[in-house]
Write a structure and sequence with these properties.
The chain is α/β, with parallel strands linked by helices and 771 residues long. Helix content is 39%, strand content 16%.
């Protein structure tokens, strides 16, 4: 990057780097990515990696990979290996700059001793509850620990005995001696070291005291000569501790500086490690690399490319304000990249046999099919065999076609992609009336789909030669959640998408895919982009749908003229408008802090357990705050708030709270019904719809419409048995190792019970009966 162009079109992080270099603060830029080895990397980490590596690369600096392995109870070498593998897959290399925080434990302990000797740290023997109680609140200062004035000698003695393992976990901690009345509560004598009797995956049992994040992180940066310590906005308040520790430890400038940026918030998923771990451990997904997960290993298995992910990270950019990125933005980047990488082939997911009566038995004709469309500047084709016995997709035939159906039906003609025009002559059915076979004729003058006589044939379908088609299992993956912000809901698991995985176990694909290797991308024409899964065998290929050919979620929101479709569209537009207002306010507040009076109001709501974003909304909107106060009176405020700020406000549109046919107390009652397990969250939203439309008390609506949750285990067991009996092939596949089908069965039971079944009970019963 030249000196002339460095200040034009840069994000605020790079602008700061330019200013630092021009001012001579640093001679060389050094950045780092410091993951904790307690889980797999996800798409949010990809943004952080792209930023840190990109800054180092742009300014000819160094990029460090450092594992922040300071918590022995949660870390594992498996995660260390997976993280390195994912970063290299993204296309980044740290070279010789691989570091581990655990290698610095000795140096950190020496600094801790020096802080004690200088009177800047002390050993506190208070319990965790006592420390929390004495910390005070946003409106009241904390109180000193009775151990705060221990002598240097006593503190050093206790510190060394902590290191020697003489005490139990939590019996003592080392705290910084700063200011128990500080406005920034994180500066009220923060913890520096704590006792952990746990085996460390690298250090073994050599240590019994481990550093806290706020003590370790800044020191690690200083030890490595990091210049720009880039982290997400939730660590903004931690910057004061970062600087205090470096000052107290004697690090002089130039030294690391912390800069915060907005983390990546992606719609229709969760990125909390705790929630992702729960999805894995409780069997909602098939593992960390389940293609529905937001982890990089899952995206790789699903067929996302590193180039697409990097392009997506570049597109969303670097900012300070909170926002939610639509999943469609990521999917667009994936489509854009795969369009030039995935050769086109044909597949049939639900095969329906077709016999061409006027084509000789045993004859095979080879047709030529291009691998690439006209707008992709690549060459290449493959032969496609045509025989008497074909397969088409069952969805491409209708015995009684609706208006506008341009595919195959009795007496109608259709083009076979790259092939001939065929006409359906007769239909074969079984005893149950199901269509089992079609008899057709082909027009030998229409090879390639042309019609020399000029007749119009509107429909074109894909097909395969039955004797030559390869058996395949095709997994159609979709978004894991039906809510844009599942982690903002009462229970994120209530919003799992029952259709996030649909398996076509008897699909067929072209013979040109023989020997396809895991990870190879293709486009199944009309169906989407797919990649070969590692589960593939020589006998049966397995294909994962990476992404559809277009944004089907957007299409669903546009389609439909029914009243329910119109209502859904209106509500979606209202939610978008409200969320846009939330984002606008959040962006304004990152630039200009709340006035002291408003901040005091916001602090009161955060003390009640509300999120910072909701608290700020209440501080800015007195009407909203009054409604919330009535709803939360005597109730769990944290549980009530999302029902107001996310669910109810998303339904208001242009109307005011005063226009509602119910009051805040009724909304609070609804939150109680959900949190108490009387109804689940999905049913709760239905009840809220009734309340918005016609008022009423939620309890009365629940009883009148029979919406109470089904918790009777015997009744649920009958439903589960019925679903398993109706889906024997899927049950057999699950027992054969296709455990991802559990989500399919849960969705079927939930649908059969109108969404009223207790999902956890359903899951347990299914696992017992399928074992």
């Amino acid at each position: 990057m030249s000196e002339d162009t460095r200040t034009e079109g840069l994000d605020f992080v790079r602008e700061k780097v330019v200013a630092d270099l021009k001012a001579g603060r640093y001679k060389k830029v050094v950045t780092r990515f410091p993951p904790e080895p307690n889980g797999y990397l996800h798409i949010g980490h990809a943004k952080a990696i792209c930023l840190s590596y990109g800054v180092a690369e742009d300014f000819g600096g160094e990029y460090h990979l450092r594992f922040d392995d300071t918590n022995p109870s949660t870390e594992d070498p498996e995660y260390v290996e997976a993280i390195q593998r994912d970063i290299k897959w993204l296309g980044f290399d740290w070279g010789e700059h691989l570091y581990f925080a655990s290698d610095y434990f000795g140096r950190m302990f020496d600094i801790a001793q020096n802080l004690v000797r200088s009177g800047r740290a002390y050993v506190d023997s208070s319990s965790e509850a006592e420390i929390r109680e004495r910390r005070g609140s946003v409106t009241e200062p904390g109180t000193d620990s009775p151990n705060r004035d221990r002598s240097v000698d006593e503190n050093l003695d206790l510190l060394h005995r902590m290191k020697a393992g003489e005490f139990q976990d939590g019996e003592h901690v080392l705290r910084a001696k700063i200011d128990m009345a500080a406005n920034n509560m994180l500066m009220r004598d923060p913890l520096l070291l704590r006792i952990r009797h746990a085996h460390h995956y690298r250090q073994g049992d050599a240590w019994r005291v481990y550093p806290m994040y706020d003590f370790a992180h800044c020191l690690e940066d200083a030890f490595e000569g990091i210049t720009h310590s880039l982290c997400s906005m939730e660590f903004e308040n931690n910057r004061a501790i970062y600087d205090w520790v470096l000052d107290a430890a004697g690090f002089e400038h130039p030294r690391p500086e912390q800069t915060e940026f907005a983390r990546l918030n992606l719609g229709y998923t969760v990125m909390s490690k705790r929630k992702l771990l729960r999805l894995v451990r409780e069997g909602y997904v098939a593992g960390w690399d389940d293609p529905r997960m937001p982890t990089l290993s899952a995206m790789r298995r699903r067929g996302y490319t590193p180039q697409a992910i990097r392009a997506f990270c570049d597109q969303v950019g670097v900012a300070k304000s909170f926002n939610i990125i639509d999943m469609a933005v990521l999917e667009h980047s994936v489509r854009d990249d795969l369009n030039h990488k995935a050769r086109r082939v044909m597949a049939v997911l639900d095969p329906l046999p077709v016999e061409i009566d006027n084509f000789s038995e045993g004859d095979v004709e080879e047709l030529e099919a291009s691998h690439w469309p006209h707008d992709v500047p690549k060459e290449g084709s493959r032969p496609v065999p045509f025989s008497r016995h074909l397969l088409i997709d069952r969805s491409d035939f209708a015995e009684d076609p609706p208006e506008g159906f341009f595919r195959l039906s009795p007496g109608a003609e259709v083009r076979l992609r790259y092939g001939y025009v065929i006409r359906c002559i007769s239909v074969v059915k079984n005893d149950d009336g199901d269509v089992t076979k079609l008899h057709c004729t082909y027009d030998p003058e229409t090879r390639g789909g042309t019609t020399p006589d000029g007749r119009k044939v509107q429909g074109t379908i894909h097909w395969l030669s039955a004797p030559h088609a390869l058996p395949a299992e095709v997994r159609l993956y979709d978004r894991l959640f039906t809510s844009e912000r599942p982690d903002a809901e009462d229970n994120f698991l209530d919003h799992l998408n029952a259709d996030s995985l649909v398996v076509h176990a008897e699909a067929r694909v072209e013979p040109s895919l023989t020997g396809a290797e895991a990870g190879e991308p293709v486009q199944f024409e009309r169906l989407g982009y797919f990649t070969a899964d590692p589960d593939s065998t020589a006998e049966k290929l397995v294909w994962n749908r990476t992404v559809t050919l277009r944004d089907t979620w957007a299409k669903l929101s546009r389609d439909g003229d029914s009243e329910s479709a119109k209502l859904a569209k209106e509500r979606a537009e209202a939610r978008r408008a409200y969320k846009e207002e939330q984002r606008r306010r959040a962006a304004d507040e990152t630039v200009e802090a709340l006035a002291p009076e408003a901040q005091a109001i916001a602090d009161r709501y955060t003390d009640l357990g509300c999120s910072e974003q909701d608290a700020r909304l209440f501080a800015l909107d007195p009407e909203l705050a009054r409604f919330f106060d009535a709803a939360a009176d005597g109730r769990d405020a944290a549980a009530v708030a999302p029902w107001l700020t996310t669910e109810l406000m998303g339904r208001l549109g242009d109307h005011a709270l005063a226009d509602l046919p119910f009051d805040g107390d009724a909304l609070g009652e609804l939150a109680d019904l959900v949190s108490g397990g009387v109804i689940n969250h999905t049913v709760g939203k239905k009840v809220l719809d009734r309340m918005v439309a016609g008022g009423g008390r939620p309890g009365d609506i629940v009883d009148a419409e029979g919406l109470r949750a089904i918790n009777d285990e015997d009744a649920l067991a009958e439903k589960v048995d019925a679903i398993l009996d109706a889906n024997p092939d899927q049950a057999k596949a699950y027992r054969g190792g296709k455990t991802a089908l559990l989500g399919f069965f849960i969705g079927q039971v939930m649908q059969a019970t109108g969404g009223r079944a207790d999902a956890q009970t359903v899951r347990r019963l299914l696992q017992e009966k399928l074992s």
